[in-house]
């Protein structure tokens, strides 16, 4: 009707039609200026860094719907953004390069970016396990990158603040991590012989690490225990027959630490609670 009026009443040419779709969040109404009750970009900016949110728009055609997911999927969004940043050195396609460029600058200024963009999921796990205590968070972030330790938490901002907001506002309370105060004597007594031997190797590995209580070292240790049990080389990469035992070992070890089979990755959890508390919960018979 509008085009007809332009042509027949005003004798002009109507503007080119541009089809567009809507922006929404899972389980909610589409964003709309005429109706309330829907998520807004300001809501998303509490959790998503400005360049990442802009990228959600720039990588879509106008007629493609955009879903701003603030549940656990937000971690995957950050992972994809970080992967694009790693490709920007030469492996990115022209389209990827263009969408990233539009995301990190505007006509007036560049949105703030995090100097040291630690993985969002890792930040959320660290904040969850430590209760958000700044001194503990800083200690763990330094251990996560010992080759280039961060000087202060500002190096991880604003992503750190977005992860904190996500943990406080969006993380399901049932999924929050609570580290046990005392060993789970019943669960320890119910371990199978295989589980008990794997636990012995894991705790023995704590001693071998010494002061190298870092995320990389703990990851090698956690995935190395099942390989030791199967007689496989420790430097053998996935996929290997040790992959499934490693996952099972992580599950019941996490259960011993938190009372739940799910939670942060076991290396991240061990890094957060430190060697003394890990030994106390996993090897209570050993004197402190």
Automatic annotation (TrEMBL):
Belongs to the class-I aminoacyl-tRNA synthetase family. Keywords: Aminoacyl-tRNA synthetase, ATP-binding, Cytoplasm, Ligase, Nucleotide-binding, Protein biosynthesis. It comes from Angustibacter aerolatus. The keyword Transferase does not apply. It is found in: Cytoplasm. InterPro entries: aa-tRNA-synth_I_codon-bd_sub2 (IPR020751), aa_tRNA-synth_I_cd-bd_sf (IPR008925), Lys-tRNA-ligase (IPR002904), Lys-tRNA-ligase_SC_fold (IPR042078). This is Lysine--tRNA ligase.
């Amino acid at each position: 009707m509008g085009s007809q009026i332009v042509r027949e009443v005003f004798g002009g040419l109507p503007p080119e039609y541009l089809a567009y779709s809507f922006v929404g969040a899972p389980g909610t109404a589409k964003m709309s200026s005429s109706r309330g009750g829907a998520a807004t970009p300001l809501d998303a900016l509490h959790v998503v860094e400005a360049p990442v949110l802009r990228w959600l728009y720039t990588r879509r055609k106008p007629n493609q719907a955009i879903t701003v997911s603030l549940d656990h999927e937000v971690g995957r969004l950050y992972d994809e953004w970080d992967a694009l940043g790693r490709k920007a050195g030469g492996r990115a396609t022209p389209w990827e390069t263009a969408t990233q460029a539009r995301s990190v600058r505007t006509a007036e200024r560049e949105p703030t970016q995090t100097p040291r963009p630690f993985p969002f999921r890792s930040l959320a796990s660290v904040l969850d396990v430590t209760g958000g205590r700044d001194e503990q968070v800083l200690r763990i972030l330094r251990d996560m990158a010992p080759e280039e330790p961060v000087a202060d938490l500002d190096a991880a901002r604003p992503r750190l603040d977005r992860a904190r907001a996500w943990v406080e506002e969006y993380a399901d309370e049932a999924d929050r991590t609570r580290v046990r105060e005392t060993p789970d004597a019943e669960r320890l007594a119910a371990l199978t012989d295989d589980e008990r031997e794997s636990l012995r190797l894991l705790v023995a590995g704590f001693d071998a690490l010494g002061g190298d209580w870092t995320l990389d070292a703990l990851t090698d240790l956690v995935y190395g225990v099942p390989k030791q049990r199967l007689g496989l080389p420790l430097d053998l990469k996935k996929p290997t027959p040790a992959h499934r035992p490693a996952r099972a070992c992580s599950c019941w070890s996490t259960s011993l630490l938190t009372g739940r089979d799910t939670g942060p990755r076991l290396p991240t959890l061990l890094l957060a609670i430190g060697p003394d508390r890990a030994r106390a919960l996993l090897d209570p018979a050993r004197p402190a």
